[in-house]
Amino acid sequence: MFSKPSTPRRAAATATAVLTAGLALTGCSTGGDDGDGTLNILMDNSEATGRLMQALADAYMEANPDVKVELEIRPGGSEGDNIVKTRLQTGDMPDLFFYNSGSLLQALAPGQTLVDLAGEPYMDVVTDTFKEGVSAGDAVYGVPVGHAIGGGVLYNLAAYEELGLEVPTTWDAFMANNRAILDAGGAAPVIQTYGTESAWTSQLFVLADNYNVLAAEPDWAEEFTANEAHFADTPAAAAGFEHLQEVGEAGFLNEDFASLTYNEGLAALVAGEGVHYPMLTNALTEIEATDPEAVDDLGFFALPGTDAANHGMTTWLPGALYLPQSTEDQDSAKDFLAFVASTEGCDAQTADVSVIGPYFIEGCAVPEDVPPAVAQLQSYFDAGLTAPALEFLSPVKGPALEQITVEVGSGIRTADDAASLYDEDVKKQAQQLGLEGW
Amino acid sequence: MTTTAPPAPRQRRRDPRRHYPMWFYLPAGVVYGTLFIVPTIASFYFAFTRWNMTGAEFIGLENFALFFSEPYLFQGLVNTFVYGVLTSGLKVVLGLLLAVFLTSQIIARGYLRSVVFFPTLVSVVGVGITFTVLMDPEEGLINRALAAVGIAGPGWLTDPDLALFSVALVDVWKGVGLATLIYIAGVVAIPQEYFEAARVDGATAFQNLRYITLPLLRPATATVIVLSLIGGLRSFDLIWAMTQGGPGFTSDVVASVIFKQYQAGFWGLSSAGNVVLFLLVAALMVPLYWKLNRKEVEQ
C-alpha cells in the first residue's frame, strides 16, 4: 500500500506543503551573514557616502585580509527611509548600516532595534557633539563617517569677483547681491532644483535658517518639541518660508528650476550659470567626484539673517554606522566600527576623499590646504558661530516639508500658508513618536 | 478467512455537477488566502491603530479623522476622479474609433494592430521615465519639436495646472491598446448579416456605426469602462514614476498620498487610507458594474 505511486491526493498535499514552506521562506531573512568572513553594509546611493565607505572598506580589508567588506546600495530620501525601517523591522538588515543621525535616527526606535555602543572602548574618542546626535537617553548608537557639514549658500567665486560683490551678512545684503547679479545679466542669482528625486533641495532655505531662529528664540527647539511654539506663530521660524517666497517672486531663480536635478544644479553653479545655490557643504564631495578642480571655484557662506554682527551657521552632523540587534556576528561588526572610530579610519577617509570639514573623532587632523569653501566653513567653527539644525535638537520633523517648500518656491503656495501646513505635517510625526503634549 | 464486517461504503454521495473534489481548491486557496485575504483583513485592523516600530496601539477612528483632515487629501480626491474619468473616457472613445478603423479593410492591418497594442506590453515605470525625458521643458524631444515649428511648449510635468493631464495622456497612450483589443473582439463578433441587411436598406457607413456597431458593442464598452475606471481610480505607478505627485502636491492622487504616508512611517495612517480607497472604488464600481450589466441583459 505505501509503495504505491503517490495518489493525486498525496501529490496535491505534497504540493501544498512545498508551497506553504516556500511562502514561509520568502518571509525569512537573507540579509545577515554568519561568520564566513564577509561583512555586509547597507548605505545610501549618494556619491559622498559611497566614496567614504569605499575608502574605509578598502583600508579595512587591507589591514584584515581575511575579511571581505561588501557594500550594498539603497535609494536615498524617503524611499530609503522606508527601506531601512522595513528591513530593521523584519530583521532583514545587513551586519551594519549607514544612516542619518538626529531625528531620522529617532524614528527607527533605536532602543528596540539597535545595539547600544555607549560602553564600547572605541567610543571614547568620538566627540560629545556627535554622540548627542546619535543618542536616545543614555544609549549611544552610531559611529561617525565623514565630516561636519554646514548648511548655507555655495556660491561661484568668479562671479563674485567679477561683479565686485562681498559675502552678505544680512538677508537684505543677500537680496541686494541677487539684484546686482540679475541686473548684470547672464546668470541666475539663485539656483533651485525641483526636478526628479531632487525636491529635498528645496528645504535648505528653511532648514539652514535654524541658527537665525535660535538667535532670536533661544528656546525654540524645546518649545517646538513640546508643541508650544510653531512655525506659523514664530516669526523667526516662518522667515525661512518667507525668504524662499521672496527669491521666487523677485524672479531670482533659474528658469528651469522646476525640472533641474540636484546634480545638474551643482554643474550649473560650477559653470557660472547660477551664482548662489543654497545647499549643504557635503555637496562639495559630490562636485569633486565629477570634476576635482571645480571645488576650488566655489565659496560658502551661512544663510544670512537680520543681525550682521551675529552671522552664524547651521550645522549638520554626518551620518553614522549603526549595528542592528539582528546581526549575528556582533564581534566582527564591532571590530569594523572600532576601525572607523580611530585615527586610522579618518586617515583612510582623508587619503581617498577630500576633507570638507572637521572630523568628529579626537586626534583626527584636517589637512592645511583645503578648498576655499571648506576654509570658510572652518572659520564659522573657529569663531564659535554655529548651531545645530533643528533635526538634531528635536525628534520632530515632518515628512512633507520638501513638497511644501517646492510649492512655495514655485509660487503655488504662500509662505504663511506653507508654515501652517508644515505645522500640521509635524503633528503626525510627533503623534507617531508618542511625544507628550500632542 | 472471511471478513465479517461489510466494507464501508467508500463512495460518498457527490453533487453531480461537481466533477472534482473540493480540496483541489486548496493550493490556490492557500496562495490566495496568504497573499490576499489575510493581509486585507489585517490592514482593516491596522487602519485603527497607530503602528510604528515598537508596535501597534489601538486608537479607534483617529487615523480616518487625520486622513480626511490632510490638507492635500481633498485635492488628491478631486485629482483621482479627474484622472479616472479622463483616462477612462478617452480610452473608450479612442479605443472604439481605433477598433472600427482596425477592423476595416486597410493596408497593413495586422501591423497597425500590433503598433496600437505595443505600449500595453511595456513596463509602466519604463514608459513613465521615457516620457519624463521626452516632456522635459527645456531638453525634451516634444518641446524641441514644437520649438522647431515656432511654438513655445509648456512645462508638461512642471506646470502645476498641466502635470496631471500630461500624466493622464501618457496613461491613455499606454492603455488604449487594451481597450482597442477588447473592442476589436467585440466588432469581429458582430454577425455580418446585420451589415448585409443594412446595405440592402441603403444604410450609410455612419448609420452602420450608429445603429449596428455601437449598440452591439455595449458589452465590450462595459468591460472597457469598468477596467479602465478601476485602473484610473487606483492609478499610482505612472504618476509616481513621472511626477511623484508634484510639483508640490498638485498631481497627487489618493494612492500617492497613501504611499507617501507609508514612506514616512505612518503605517496605520496609510492603512486607513487604503481602506478609504477600497471603499471608494467599491462604492463607485459596484453600482456602475451592476447598471452596465443590467442594461446588457435588457437589450
From TrEMBL, chain A:
Q: Which UniProt keywords apply?
A: Signal
| Residues in the signal sequence | 1-26
Q: By its UniProt entry, which Pfam families does this protein fall under?
A: SBP_bac_1
Q: Which domain of life is it from?
A: Bacteria
Determine if Signal is one of this entry's keywords.
yes
Identification of the protein by name: Raffinose/stachyose/melibiose transport system substrate-binding protein
Q: Which organism is it from?
A: Glycomyces harbinensis
What is this organism's lineage?
A: Bacteria, Bacillati, Actinomycetota, Actinomycetes, Glycomycetales
Automatic annotation (TrEMBL), chain B:
What domain of life?
A: Bacteria
User: Which residue ranges does the record assign to the ABC transmembrane type-1 domain?
Assistant: 77-288
Q: What is this protein called?
A: Raffinose/stachyose/melibiose transport system permease protein
Please report the organism this UniProt entry assigns to the protein.
Glycomyces harbinensis
The membrane spanning regions, by residue number, are 22-48, 81-103, 115-135, 162-190, 211-233, 266-290
Record keywords: Cell membrane, Membrane, Transmembrane, Transmembrane helix, Transport
Q: How does it sit in the membrane?
A: Multi-pass membrane protein
Write down the Pfam families for this protein, in alphabetical order: BPD_transp_1
Which cell locations does it reside in?
Answer: Cell membrane
**GO cellular component terms?**
plasma membrane
Q: Which InterPro entries match?
A: ABC_transporter_permease, MetI-like, MetI-like_sf
Q: Name one GO biological process term.
A: transmembrane transport
What Gene3D superfamilies does its record include? MetI-like
